[in-house]
Amino acid sequence: MNTLEAAKILTSLRKLLELEGENKFKLRALELAEENLKSTEIELIEFISLVESKQVSGIGTQLLKDLKEIENTKTLKAYQNLKNVYTDSIFELFKIRGLGASKIKTLFDNLQVNSIEKLKLAIAEKTIHNLKGFGDKSIASIEENINFLETWKGYFCIDVHEIAIDNIISKLGPFVQTSGTSKTKEEVFNKIELEAEENKRDEILIHLKEKLFKEKFEAEDKELITFNFKDLPVELRFVKKLDALATSDNQKLVGILHTHTTYSDGQHSIEEMANACISKGYSYLGITDHSKTAAYAGGLSEDKLKLQGLEIDELNEKLKPFKILKGIESDILNDGELDYPDKVLEKLDFVIASIHSGFNISKKQMTERITKAIKNPFTSILGHPTGRLLLKRPEYEVYMEEVINTAIEYNKIIELNSNPKRLDISWNWLKKYKDSPLKIVITPDAHSISQIDYVKYGQLLAEKAQFSNDKIVNYGSLNDFLKNVNEN
User: Fold this and answer.
1) Which domain holds residue 70?
2) Is residue 430 within 8 Å of residue 416, measured between CB atoms?
3) CB 235 within 8 A of CB 193
Protein backbone atom coordinates (compact mmCIF):
# COMPACT_ATOMS: atom_id res chain seq x y z
CA MET A 1 0.00 0.00 0.00
CA ASN A 2 1.47 3.34 -1.03
CA THR A 3 0.51 6.89 -0.08
CA LEU A 4 -1.43 7.54 -3.30
CA GLU A 5 -3.63 4.51 -2.66
CA ALA A 6 -4.16 5.59 0.95
CA ALA A 7 -5.07 9.11 -0.21
CA LYS A 8 -7.80 7.66 -2.45
CA ILE A 9 -9.36 5.90 0.54
CA LEU A 10 -9.33 9.10 2.60
CA THR A 11 -10.82 11.05 -0.32
CA SER A 12 -13.67 8.58 -0.63
CA LEU A 13 -14.23 8.58 3.13
CA ARG A 14 -14.33 12.39 3.18
CA LYS A 15 -16.99 12.50 0.46
CA LEU A 16 -19.17 10.01 2.31
CA LEU A 17 -18.72 11.93 5.55
CA GLU A 18 -19.85 15.09 3.75
CA LEU A 19 -23.10 13.26 2.98
CA GLU A 20 -23.38 12.43 6.66
CA GLY A 21 -23.01 16.10 7.61
CA GLU A 22 -19.62 15.77 9.29
CA ASN A 23 -18.18 19.03 10.68
CA LYS A 24 -16.02 21.09 8.33
CA PHE A 25 -12.94 20.94 10.57
CA LYS A 26 -12.72 17.15 10.36
CA LEU A 27 -13.35 17.29 6.62
CA ARG A 28 -10.59 19.87 6.19
CA ALA A 29 -8.20 17.75 8.27
CA LEU A 30 -8.90 14.80 5.98
CA GLU A 31 -8.36 16.94 2.90
CA LEU A 32 -5.00 18.19 4.18
CA ALA A 33 -3.97 14.62 4.97
CA GLU A 34 -4.91 13.59 1.41
CA GLU A 35 -2.75 16.37 -0.03
CA ASN A 36 0.10 15.37 2.28
CA LEU A 37 -0.10 11.75 1.16
CA LYS A 38 -0.27 12.68 -2.53
CA SER A 39 2.78 14.90 -2.28
CA THR A 40 5.09 12.16 -0.98
CA GLU A 41 4.43 9.13 -3.26
CA ILE A 42 6.14 6.59 -1.00
CA GLU A 43 5.10 3.40 0.76
CA LEU A 44 2.47 4.07 3.43
CA ILE A 45 4.48 2.30 6.13
CA GLU A 46 7.36 4.70 5.45
CA PHE A 47 5.00 7.69 5.62
CA ILE A 48 3.64 6.48 8.97
CA SER A 49 7.19 6.24 10.28
CA LEU A 50 7.86 9.84 9.17
CA VAL A 51 4.73 11.02 11.01
CA GLU A 52 5.71 9.19 14.18
CA SER A 53 9.21 10.69 14.07
CA LYS A 54 7.70 14.19 13.64
CA GLN A 55 9.26 14.59 10.18
CA VAL A 56 5.78 15.05 8.69
CA SER A 57 3.35 17.47 10.30
CA GLY A 58 -0.41 17.94 10.01
CA ILE A 59 -1.42 14.36 10.84
CA GLY A 60 -3.30 14.14 14.15
CA THR A 61 -3.67 11.18 16.49
CA GLN A 62 -6.91 9.88 14.92
CA LEU A 63 -5.64 10.24 11.37
CA LEU A 64 -2.45 8.38 12.28
CA LYS A 65 -4.59 5.61 13.72
CA ASP A 66 -6.62 5.55 10.49
CA LEU A 67 -3.46 5.31 8.39
CA LYS A 68 -2.24 2.37 10.45
CA GLU A 69 -5.58 0.66 9.93
CA ILE A 70 -5.28 1.23 6.17
CA GLU A 71 -1.75 -0.19 6.20
CA ASN A 72 -2.88 -3.30 8.11
CA THR A 73 -6.24 -3.98 6.46
CA LYS A 74 -5.98 -2.11 3.11
CA THR A 75 -9.16 -0.24 4.00
CA LEU A 76 -11.02 1.56 6.81
CA LYS A 77 -13.95 0.06 8.67
CA ALA A 78 -15.65 3.47 8.86
CA TYR A 79 -15.30 3.85 5.09
CA GLN A 80 -16.62 0.34 4.38
CA ASN A 81 -19.66 0.88 6.63
CA LEU A 82 -20.63 4.07 4.79
CA LYS A 83 -19.92 2.56 1.38
CA ASN A 84 -22.30 -0.29 2.19
CA VAL A 85 -25.03 2.31 2.69
CA TYR A 86 -24.40 4.47 -0.37
CA THR A 87 -22.57 1.99 -2.73
CA ASP A 88 -19.60 2.79 -4.96
CA SER A 89 -21.72 4.39 -7.67
CA ILE A 90 -22.50 7.38 -5.41
CA PHE A 91 -19.06 8.77 -6.22
CA GLU A 92 -20.17 9.33 -9.82
CA LEU A 93 -22.48 12.09 -8.60
CA PHE A 94 -19.63 14.06 -7.02
CA LYS A 95 -18.17 14.54 -10.52
CA ILE A 96 -21.21 16.51 -11.68
CA ARG A 97 -20.79 20.26 -11.41
CA GLY A 98 -23.64 21.83 -9.48
CA LEU A 99 -24.17 18.77 -7.30
CA GLY A 100 -22.64 19.27 -3.88
CA ALA A 101 -22.92 16.90 -0.95
CA SER A 102 -26.16 18.50 0.24
CA LYS A 103 -27.98 17.97 -3.07
CA ILE A 104 -26.59 14.45 -3.46
CA LYS A 105 -27.88 13.62 0.01
CA THR A 106 -31.30 15.02 -0.90
CA LEU A 107 -31.41 12.86 -4.03
CA PHE A 108 -30.36 9.78 -2.10
CA ASP A 109 -32.74 10.25 0.83
CA ASN A 110 -35.80 11.10 -1.25
CA LEU A 111 -35.35 9.19 -4.51
CA GLN A 112 -32.65 6.60 -3.69
CA VAL A 113 -30.53 8.12 -6.45
CA ASN A 114 -26.96 6.87 -6.05
CA SER A 115 -25.66 6.85 -9.65
CA ILE A 116 -25.71 8.94 -12.81
CA GLU A 117 -28.07 6.47 -14.49
CA LYS A 118 -30.58 6.76 -11.66
CA LEU A 119 -30.23 10.55 -11.75
CA LYS A 120 -30.95 10.59 -15.49
CA LEU A 121 -34.03 8.45 -14.86
CA ALA A 122 -35.23 10.81 -12.12
CA ILE A 123 -34.87 13.73 -14.52
CA ALA A 124 -36.65 11.88 -17.32
CA GLU A 125 -39.52 10.90 -15.02
CA LYS A 126 -39.59 14.41 -13.53
CA THR A 127 -39.54 13.08 -9.96
CA ILE A 128 -36.56 15.32 -9.29
CA HIS A 129 -38.70 18.42 -9.94
CA ASN A 130 -40.48 17.90 -6.64
CA LEU A 131 -37.33 18.30 -4.57
CA LYS A 132 -36.25 21.54 -2.94
CA GLY A 133 -33.29 23.15 -4.71
CA PHE A 134 -33.95 21.47 -8.05
CA GLY A 135 -35.62 24.10 -10.20
CA ASP A 136 -35.74 24.07 -14.00
CA LYS A 137 -32.52 26.06 -14.36
CA SER A 138 -30.66 23.82 -11.91
CA ILE A 139 -31.86 20.64 -13.64
CA ALA A 140 -30.91 21.96 -17.08
CA SER A 141 -27.42 22.71 -15.77
CA ILE A 142 -27.13 19.22 -14.27
CA GLU A 143 -28.15 17.65 -17.60
CA GLU A 144 -25.59 19.74 -19.45
CA ASN A 145 -22.87 18.71 -17.02
CA ILE A 146 -23.82 15.04 -17.28
CA ASN A 147 -23.52 15.27 -21.06
CA PHE A 148 -20.09 16.87 -20.70
CA LEU A 149 -18.89 14.06 -18.41
CA GLU A 150 -20.22 11.37 -20.73
CA THR A 151 -18.54 12.98 -23.74
CA TRP A 152 -15.17 12.60 -22.03
CA LYS A 153 -15.80 9.28 -20.32
CA GLY A 154 -12.74 7.04 -20.52
CA TYR A 155 -10.28 9.91 -20.93
CA PHE A 156 -7.54 10.79 -18.47
CA CYS A 157 -5.21 13.74 -17.91
CA ILE A 158 -1.59 14.14 -18.97
CA ASP A 159 -0.12 13.51 -15.50
CA VAL A 160 -1.80 10.11 -15.26
CA HIS A 161 -0.60 9.35 -18.80
CA GLU A 162 3.03 10.36 -18.21
CA ILE A 163 3.31 8.54 -14.88
CA ALA A 164 1.95 5.36 -16.47
CA ILE A 165 4.32 5.69 -19.43
CA ASP A 166 7.30 6.07 -17.09
CA ASN A 167 6.17 3.04 -15.10
CA ILE A 168 5.75 0.81 -18.12
CA ILE A 169 8.98 1.84 -19.84
CA SER A 170 10.96 1.48 -16.60
CA LYS A 171 9.86 -2.16 -16.46
CA LEU A 172 10.24 -2.96 -20.15
CA GLY A 173 13.60 -1.24 -20.53
CA PRO A 174 14.80 -0.18 -23.98
CA PHE A 175 12.42 -2.44 -25.87
CA VAL A 176 9.53 0.01 -26.26
CA GLN A 177 8.90 3.67 -26.94
CA THR A 178 5.87 5.90 -27.26
CA SER A 179 3.88 6.25 -30.45
CA GLY A 180 0.73 8.02 -31.66
CA THR A 181 -0.68 10.61 -29.29
CA SER A 182 1.48 9.24 -26.48
CA LYS A 183 4.45 10.48 -28.51
CA THR A 184 3.05 13.72 -29.92
CA LYS A 185 1.33 14.58 -26.60
CA GLU A 186 -2.19 15.84 -26.05
CA GLU A 187 -4.03 17.51 -23.18
CA VAL A 188 -6.12 14.39 -22.46
CA PHE A 189 -5.82 10.78 -23.58
CA ASN A 190 -8.08 7.74 -23.92
CA LYS A 191 -5.26 5.21 -24.27
CA ILE A 192 -1.50 4.73 -24.02
CA GLU A 193 0.21 3.98 -27.33
CA LEU A 194 3.54 2.17 -27.50
CA GLU A 195 5.54 0.46 -30.19
CA ALA A 196 8.33 -2.10 -30.28
CA GLU A 197 10.42 -3.84 -32.91
CA GLU A 198 8.89 -7.14 -33.96
CA ASN A 199 12.20 -9.01 -33.54
CA LYS A 200 12.02 -8.21 -29.80
CA ARG A 201 8.53 -9.68 -29.40
CA ASP A 202 9.54 -12.75 -27.37
CA GLU A 203 11.68 -10.73 -24.95
CA ILE A 204 8.90 -8.19 -24.49
CA LEU A 205 6.34 -10.87 -23.75
CA ILE A 206 8.61 -12.29 -21.06
CA HIS A 207 9.07 -8.87 -19.52
CA LEU A 208 5.34 -8.17 -19.67
CA LYS A 209 4.39 -11.40 -18.01
CA GLU A 210 7.15 -11.51 -15.41
CA LYS A 211 7.67 -7.87 -14.48
CA LEU A 212 4.45 -6.05 -15.21
CA PHE A 213 1.39 -8.28 -15.26
CA LYS A 214 0.06 -11.48 -13.91
CA GLU A 215 -3.32 -11.33 -15.57
CA LYS A 216 -3.95 -12.30 -19.18
CA PHE A 217 -3.79 -9.78 -21.97
CA GLU A 218 -7.09 -8.57 -23.36
CA ALA A 219 -5.97 -9.29 -26.91
CA GLU A 220 -2.81 -10.55 -28.50
CA ASP A 221 -1.98 -11.00 -32.17
CA LYS A 222 1.04 -10.68 -34.43
CA GLU A 223 0.91 -6.92 -34.76
CA LEU A 224 -0.77 -5.71 -31.58
CA ILE A 225 -1.06 -6.51 -27.89
CA THR A 226 -3.68 -4.70 -25.84
CA PHE A 227 -3.83 -4.76 -22.06
CA ASN A 228 -4.72 -2.61 -19.07
CA PHE A 229 -2.15 -0.96 -16.85
CA LYS A 230 -3.67 0.34 -13.60
CA ASP A 231 -7.07 0.52 -15.35
CA LEU A 232 -5.62 2.43 -18.32
CA PRO A 233 -5.93 0.88 -21.81
CA VAL A 234 -2.59 0.23 -23.50
CA GLU A 235 -1.88 -0.61 -27.14
CA LEU A 236 1.55 -2.09 -27.90
CA ARG A 237 2.14 -2.28 -31.66
CA PHE A 238 4.99 -4.15 -33.33
CA VAL A 239 6.87 -2.46 -36.16
CA LYS A 240 9.88 -3.44 -38.26
CA LYS A 241 12.10 -0.67 -36.91
CA LEU A 242 11.70 2.02 -34.27
CA ASP A 243 12.25 5.63 -35.23
CA ALA A 244 15.18 7.44 -33.67
CA LEU A 245 14.13 9.16 -30.45
CA ALA A 246 13.63 12.89 -30.86
CA THR A 247 15.54 15.15 -28.52
CA SER A 248 13.93 18.18 -26.92
CA ASP A 249 15.60 21.57 -27.34
CA ASN A 250 13.61 23.15 -24.53
CA GLN A 251 15.86 24.83 -22.01
CA LYS A 252 15.10 24.64 -18.30
CA LEU A 253 12.86 27.20 -16.70
CA VAL A 254 14.84 29.68 -14.63
CA GLY A 255 12.03 30.76 -12.32
CA ILE A 256 8.85 29.28 -10.87
CA LEU A 257 5.79 31.54 -10.79
CA HIS A 258 2.20 31.07 -9.58
CA THR A 259 2.56 29.19 -6.32
CA HIS A 260 0.33 28.99 -3.25
CA THR A 261 1.46 28.62 0.35
CA THR A 262 -0.04 28.04 3.78
CA TYR A 263 -1.03 31.72 3.75
CA SER A 264 -4.00 30.66 1.58
CA ASP A 265 -4.76 27.12 0.38
CA GLY A 266 -1.23 25.80 -0.17
CA GLN A 267 0.27 22.92 1.76
CA HIS A 268 3.75 24.27 2.41
CA SER A 269 5.27 27.45 3.80
CA ILE A 270 7.03 30.10 1.71
CA GLU A 271 10.41 28.91 2.98
CA GLU A 272 9.61 25.29 2.19
CA MET A 273 8.53 26.20 -1.34
CA ALA A 274 11.65 28.33 -1.80
CA ASN A 275 14.01 25.61 -0.57
CA ALA A 276 12.32 23.12 -2.90
CA CYS A 277 12.92 25.47 -5.84
CA ILE A 278 16.55 25.94 -4.81
CA SER A 279 17.04 22.16 -4.65
CA LYS A 280 15.57 21.84 -8.15
CA GLY A 281 17.98 24.43 -9.51
CA TYR A 282 15.66 27.40 -10.00
CA SER A 283 16.83 30.99 -9.45
CA TYR A 284 13.64 32.67 -8.31
CA LEU A 285 10.13 31.98 -7.04
CA GLY A 286 6.97 34.04 -7.37
CA ILE A 287 4.48 33.68 -4.50
CA THR A 288 0.88 34.28 -5.58
CA ASP A 289 -1.55 33.25 -2.90
CA HIS A 290 -5.27 33.77 -3.40
CA SER A 291 -6.69 37.26 -2.98
CA LYS A 292 -9.29 38.43 -0.51
CA THR A 293 -12.33 37.63 -2.71
CA ALA A 294 -11.37 33.94 -2.69
CA ALA A 295 -12.47 33.45 0.93
CA TYR A 296 -13.16 29.75 0.20
CA ALA A 297 -9.40 29.35 -0.42
CA GLY A 298 -8.19 31.40 2.52
CA GLY A 299 -7.72 34.51 0.40
CA LEU A 300 -5.43 37.15 1.91
CA SER A 301 -6.72 40.32 3.51
CA GLU A 302 -4.66 43.45 2.89
CA ASP A 303 -3.09 43.12 6.35
CA LYS A 304 -2.22 39.46 5.78
CA LEU A 305 -0.69 40.30 2.39
CA LYS A 306 1.46 42.96 4.06
CA LEU A 307 2.54 40.44 6.70
CA GLN A 308 3.48 37.97 3.98
CA GLY A 309 5.59 40.66 2.32
CA LEU A 310 7.57 41.15 5.52
CA GLU A 311 8.26 37.42 5.74
CA ILE A 312 9.42 37.40 2.12
CA ASP A 313 11.83 40.28 2.90
CA GLU A 314 13.35 38.25 5.74
CA LEU A 315 13.63 35.11 3.61
CA ASN A 316 15.29 37.00 0.77
CA GLU A 317 18.04 38.05 3.17
CA LYS A 318 18.38 34.49 4.44
CA LEU A 319 18.33 32.72 1.07
CA LYS A 320 20.52 35.03 -1.06
CA PRO A 321 21.18 34.93 -4.00
CA PHE A 322 17.86 33.12 -4.51
CA LYS A 323 15.00 35.61 -4.89
CA ILE A 324 11.39 35.36 -3.78
CA LEU A 325 9.00 37.73 -5.57
CA LYS A 326 5.95 39.26 -3.93
CA GLY A 327 2.87 38.53 -5.99
CA ILE A 328 -0.82 37.75 -5.72
CA GLU A 329 -3.41 35.89 -7.75
CA SER A 330 -5.98 38.66 -7.76
CA ASP A 331 -9.57 37.79 -8.60
CA ILE A 332 -11.09 39.57 -11.59
CA LEU A 333 -14.40 40.87 -10.28
CA ASN A 334 -17.62 40.88 -12.29
CA ASP A 335 -16.96 44.44 -13.47
CA GLY A 336 -13.40 43.64 -14.62
CA GLU A 337 -11.70 45.36 -11.68
CA LEU A 338 -9.13 43.59 -9.51
CA ASP A 339 -10.02 42.99 -5.87
CA TYR A 340 -7.35 45.16 -4.23
CA PRO A 341 -6.94 48.93 -4.48
CA ASP A 342 -4.05 50.33 -6.52
CA LYS A 343 -2.12 51.32 -3.38
CA VAL A 344 -1.87 47.61 -2.48
CA LEU A 345 -1.10 46.30 -5.97
CA GLU A 346 1.63 48.85 -6.65
CA LYS A 347 3.75 47.42 -3.82
CA LEU A 348 3.90 43.95 -5.41
CA ASP A 349 6.50 42.65 -7.86
CA PHE A 350 3.84 41.20 -10.15
CA VAL A 351 0.12 40.40 -10.28
CA ILE A 352 -1.69 37.45 -11.83
CA ALA A 353 -5.30 38.36 -12.65
CA SER A 354 -7.66 35.37 -12.78
CA ILE A 355 -11.35 34.55 -12.90
CA HIS A 356 -12.60 32.06 -10.30
CA SER A 357 -16.33 32.76 -10.31
CA GLY A 358 -19.11 34.39 -12.31
CA PHE A 359 -18.72 32.13 -15.33
CA ASN A 360 -22.32 32.25 -16.52
CA ILE A 361 -22.38 35.51 -18.42
CA SER A 362 -22.52 36.23 -22.13
CA LYS A 363 -19.50 35.83 -24.39
CA LYS A 364 -19.42 39.59 -24.96
CA GLN A 365 -19.63 40.37 -21.22
CA MET A 366 -16.87 37.88 -20.37
CA THR A 367 -14.62 39.29 -23.07
CA GLU A 368 -15.16 42.85 -21.85
CA ARG A 369 -14.54 41.76 -18.26
CA ILE A 370 -11.22 40.06 -19.08
CA THR A 371 -9.92 42.72 -21.47
CA LYS A 372 -10.64 45.39 -18.87
CA ALA A 373 -8.55 43.45 -16.36
CA ILE A 374 -5.74 43.08 -18.91
CA LYS A 375 -5.71 46.84 -19.41
CA ASN A 376 -5.33 47.43 -15.68
CA PRO A 377 -1.82 48.91 -15.28
CA PHE A 378 -1.10 46.58 -12.34
CA THR A 379 -2.00 43.35 -14.16
CA SER A 380 1.17 41.52 -15.19
CA ILE A 381 -0.21 38.12 -16.20
CA LEU A 382 -3.63 36.83 -17.23
CA GLY A 383 -4.13 33.57 -15.32
CA HIS A 384 -5.73 30.40 -16.78
CA PRO A 385 -7.55 32.48 -19.41
CA THR A 386 -10.43 30.12 -20.31
CA GLY A 387 -11.23 28.82 -16.82
CA ARG A 388 -11.55 25.23 -17.96
CA LEU A 389 -10.96 22.15 -15.81
CA LEU A 390 -10.16 19.29 -18.16
CA LEU A 391 -12.69 16.43 -18.07
CA LYS A 392 -14.67 18.32 -15.42
CA ARG A 393 -15.62 21.82 -16.58
CA PRO A 394 -15.68 23.36 -20.07
CA GLU A 395 -14.11 26.72 -20.73
CA TYR A 396 -16.34 29.75 -20.33
CA GLU A 397 -17.62 31.59 -23.39
CA VAL A 398 -15.11 34.24 -24.44
CA TYR A 399 -13.70 35.73 -27.65
CA MET A 400 -10.16 34.47 -27.21
CA GLU A 401 -8.75 36.28 -30.23
CA GLU A 402 -9.78 39.58 -28.68
CA VAL A 403 -8.32 38.57 -25.31
CA ILE A 404 -4.98 37.53 -26.83
CA ASN A 405 -4.78 40.58 -29.09
CA THR A 406 -5.48 42.84 -26.12
CA ALA A 407 -2.67 41.15 -24.18
CA ILE A 408 -0.32 41.75 -27.12
CA GLU A 409 -1.42 45.39 -27.50
CA TYR A 410 -0.90 46.17 -23.81
CA ASN A 411 2.27 44.08 -23.57
CA LYS A 412 0.81 41.70 -20.99
CA ILE A 413 1.72 38.05 -20.43
CA ILE A 414 -0.68 35.11 -20.73
CA GLU A 415 -0.27 32.12 -18.46
CA LEU A 416 0.18 28.57 -19.65
CA ASN A 417 -1.07 27.02 -16.43
CA SER A 418 0.55 23.57 -16.33
CA ASN A 419 -1.72 22.03 -13.72
CA PRO A 420 -2.71 18.84 -15.60
CA LYS A 421 -6.37 19.60 -14.93
CA ARG A 422 -6.04 23.00 -16.62
CA LEU A 423 -3.28 23.25 -19.27
CA ASP A 424 -4.72 26.68 -19.93
CA ILE A 425 -4.01 28.47 -22.35
CA SER A 426 -4.41 25.59 -24.78
CA TRP A 427 -1.47 24.67 -27.01
CA ASN A 428 -3.76 25.16 -30.02
CA TRP A 429 -3.93 28.90 -29.29
CA LEU A 430 -0.16 29.00 -28.81
CA LYS A 431 0.37 27.37 -32.17
CA LYS A 432 -1.96 29.87 -33.82
CA TYR A 433 -0.06 32.79 -32.28
CA LYS A 434 3.47 31.32 -32.42
CA ASP A 435 4.60 33.94 -34.94
CA SER A 436 3.01 36.84 -33.06
CA PRO A 437 4.54 39.01 -30.29
CA LEU A 438 2.50 37.14 -27.67
CA LYS A 439 4.46 36.39 -24.49
CA ILE A 440 3.59 33.58 -22.08
CA VAL A 441 4.73 32.27 -18.72
CA ILE A 442 4.76 28.55 -17.93
CA THR A 443 3.59 28.03 -14.35
CA PRO A 444 2.74 25.03 -12.14
CA ASP A 445 -0.09 26.68 -10.16
CA ALA A 446 1.54 24.72 -7.35
CA HIS A 447 -0.25 24.20 -4.05
CA SER A 448 2.50 21.90 -2.74
CA ILE A 449 6.17 21.13 -3.32
CA SER A 450 5.44 18.11 -5.51
CA GLN A 451 3.25 20.21 -7.81
CA ILE A 452 6.18 22.46 -8.76
CA ASP A 453 7.08 19.74 -11.26
CA TYR A 454 3.79 20.31 -13.12
CA VAL A 455 5.73 22.78 -15.29
CA LYS A 456 7.00 19.87 -17.37
CA TYR A 457 3.51 19.36 -18.80
CA GLY A 458 3.31 22.98 -19.92
CA GLN A 459 6.76 22.69 -21.46
CA LEU A 460 5.71 19.61 -23.44
CA LEU A 461 2.72 21.43 -24.90
CA ALA A 462 4.57 24.67 -25.60
CA GLU A 463 7.06 22.58 -27.53
CA LYS A 464 4.21 20.83 -29.36
CA ALA A 465 2.91 24.27 -30.36
CA GLN A 466 6.41 25.22 -31.59
CA PHE A 467 6.22 28.30 -29.39
CA SER A 468 9.53 30.13 -29.21
CA ASN A 469 11.52 29.91 -25.98
CA ASP A 470 12.37 33.59 -26.43
CA LYS A 471 8.72 34.48 -25.75
CA ILE A 472 8.43 32.34 -22.60
CA VAL A 473 9.30 34.94 -19.99
CA ASN A 474 10.48 32.61 -17.21
CA TYR A 475 13.02 30.94 -19.48
CA GLY A 476 14.97 34.15 -18.95
CA SER A 477 16.73 35.57 -15.91
CA LEU A 478 15.01 37.30 -13.00
CA ASN A 479 15.94 40.67 -14.47
CA ASP A 480 14.46 39.64 -17.84
CA PHE A 481 11.23 38.61 -16.16
CA LEU A 482 10.94 41.83 -14.16
CA LYS A 483 11.72 43.85 -17.30
CA ASN A 484 8.85 42.10 -19.11
CA VAL A 485 6.54 42.80 -16.18
CA ASN A 486 7.49 46.45 -15.93
CA GLU A 487 7.21 47.18 -19.65
CA ASN A 488 3.40 47.25 -19.60
Assistant:
1) 3-151
2) yes
3) yes
